[in-house]
Amino acid sequence: MPDVVTETKDKYQNDIIKIWYSSYQSEDKFVTLTVKQAAAIADNIDAIYRFVDKHEKNKLWKPEK
Fold it and tell me: Which domain covers residue 39, as residue numbers?
């Protein structure tokens, strides 16, 4: 497994962050975000946590009756 989070530059020399999430057939997979994209995620992190919990962990989400 590579470094989970790395800061680097894209081909246009823009600052980006790469977040490792999986390996498939010996190839590492990353989510790559620009500064604006990372800021949008940071602003909405609670909604993202709820989304993940609802669809993966299913611990907090309770459907309404």
Answer: 5-57
